From TrEMBL:
The lineage of its organism: Bacteria, Bacillati, Bacillota, Bacilli, Bacillales. SUPFAM superfamilies: (Trans)glycosidases (SSF51445). It comes from Paenibacillus nuruki. GO terms for molecular function: beta-glucosidase activity. The keyword Magnesium does not apply. GO terms for biological process: carbohydrate catabolic process. This is Amygdalase. The keyword Hydrolase applies.
Length: 473
């Protein structure tokens, strides 16, 4: 049988509101947690923030024209909650809804399927001030109301919806490494906030069934499949533990409606387990998604970690290769570099086969369709004197990952689409503007917004061919 992509495969690309829009206080928008957090000195690379970002709010038509020219079939974007509800709840800001009306209509007019992310980390600051955002159960109903507003407004035009983006990665930085708001080191709060987010996710999916009965919804998970560093039994056990705590904790809860037993037991014994209230277990089972959104960048290799071993390491946010430090959970596992894999300048392991492995694991364990909602390479790009950007390394990265997608489909994975990260260059949360992912170069950097010109890179034309040939390229 020929290994091929389905004819209706969604060839896409992705972004997120805070990383592209800018216009942070325009047309009635309220501040998000990120608007506040990035203003605290030292929190981001060179103090960069999304106040202006890449000005997509004002230039979305130009950006969509470039998508159309490339032949893009799907565009994943997120809605800024505080644009819709400046206070997080209560009075809705009509101007915010109108902006996304226009964006969605422009996509549809260009035959591009909108893929709408409900939440990509920019919670209203008002809710953080009032009750601590994800640390209070009030968030469940406020998020639900916000989602219902969007379901009613866009449900007739938008088929594919992403509920929470990378709850795992975001909460890890929010409550363990302290690199995302609220920026604390507290594992107990980490598990409590995650539990609330799981409930909010399930509630939002339950409402979705009512308001958008013909739509498809799923969370996007930051999926780094685990490898054991060796076949030594204690490394194998470390790897099993890492799978349980780093992946299955989220994937099982989303897709099976309950936490994995071994991890839950461990957390109960260490007084870290979340607080269950009546109805929680039932609600979780109502949140089973239509597909699993996978954001894939790398695999992570684990080895045994002694009880007095590594806890928190340091993350490379500068692009200085080799500045990453290993992290772990004492007594259970720690990360270790994989000598078989090349890394990017940000020390992310490049592993296309790992994507195939991950897709197969999800298929076997949950039997759900998969939508790759992010995959890409963040690198320094150079604008040449002749005005071109020769990003062959990005083409190599994307091509090798797409090859593995094709293999995974032949293995039996029901893959409905692939969104590269990202369409244009954009703000990298912790790494500023110098870490670029786009098919389209944006002429700006940390220090200067320059003229924000959009310049298609070599990879833009390559992906155009990929789409045109339905992945034969
Ligand atoms: C994911 C996020 C994206 C994006 C991407 C690249 O975790 O969902 O928003 O930022 O990773 O990450 P980074 O910008 O840190 O390189």
């Amino acid at each position: 049988q020929k290994k091929a992509f389905p004819t209706d495969f969604l060839w896409g690309s992705a972004s997120a509101a805070y990383q592209v829009e800018g216009a942070w206080d325009e047309d009635g928008k309220g501040p998000s947690m990120w608007d506040s957090f990035t203003k605290i000195p030292g929190k981001t690379f060179k103090g960069t923030n999304g106040d202006v970002a890449v000005d997509h709010y004002h230039r979305y038509k130009e950006d969509i024209a470039l998508m159309a020219k490339q032949g893009l079939k799907a565009y994943r974007f997120s809605i800024s909650w505080p644009r819709i509800y400046p206070q997080g709840k209560g009075e809705v800001n009509e101007a915010g809804l109108v902006f996304y009306d226009q964006l969605i209509d422009e996509l549809i007019a260009n035959q591009i399927e909108p893929v709408l992310t409900l939440y990509h980390w920019d919670a209203p600051q008002a809710l953080a001030d009032e009750y601590g955002a994800w640390e209070s159960r009030e968030m469940i109903e406020d998020f639900n109301q916000y989602c219902i507003t969007l379901y009613k407004r866009y449900g007739d035009r938008v088929k594919y919806w992403v509920s929470l983006n990378e709850q795992n990665y975001n909460s890890n930085h929010a409550f363990i490494t302290a690199m995302h708001p609220p920026g604390v080191h507290d594992r107990k709060r980490f598990y409590e906030a995650n539990h609330i987010a799981f409930l909010a996710n399930a509630k939002a999916i339950e409402s979705f069934r009512q308001y958008v009965p013909n739509g498809k919804i799923g969370p996007s998970f930051a999926y780094s499949p685990s490898y054991p560093a060796s076949s030594q039994p204690r490394d194998m056990l470390a790897y099993e533990n890492a799978e349980e705590f780093q992946n299955n904790w989220w994937l099982d809860t989303y897709c099976l409606g309950h936490y994995p037993q071994v991890a839950l037991r461990y957390l109960q014994e260490h007084d870290l387990a979340p607080t269950f209230e009546e109805g929680d277990i039932e609600l979780l089972t109502k949140g089973i998604p239509d597909f699993v959104g996978v954001n894939y960048y790398q695999t992570i290799t684990y080895e045994f970690n002694p009880i007095d071993g590594v806890a928190e390491g340091k993350m490379n946010t500068t692009g200085q290769k080799g500045s990453n430090e290993d992290t772990g959970r004492p007594g259970l596992y720690k990360t270790t570099p994989n000598g078989h894999l090349e890394t990017s300048n940000w020390d992310w392991a490049i592993d296309p086969i790992g994507l195939r492995i991950g897709l197969r694991r999800i298929t076997s364990r949950y039997g759900l369709p998969v939508f790759i909602t992010e995959n890409g390479l963040g690198e320094f790009d150079k604008l040449e004197a002749d005005g071109s950007i020769q990003d062959d390394y990005r083409i190599d990265y994307l091509r090798s990952h797409l090859e593995q997608c094709r293999e995974a489909i032949a293995d039996g994975v029901d893959l409905i689409g692939y969104c590269s990260w990202s369409f244009t260059d954009l703000l990298s949360w912790l790494n500023g503007y110098q870490k670029r992912y786009g098919f389209v170069y944006i002429n700006r950097d940390e220090d200067s917004e320059k003229d924000m010109r959009r310049i298609p890179k070599k990879s833009y034309y390559w992906y155009q061919q990929v789409i045109e040939s339905n992945g034969e390229q």
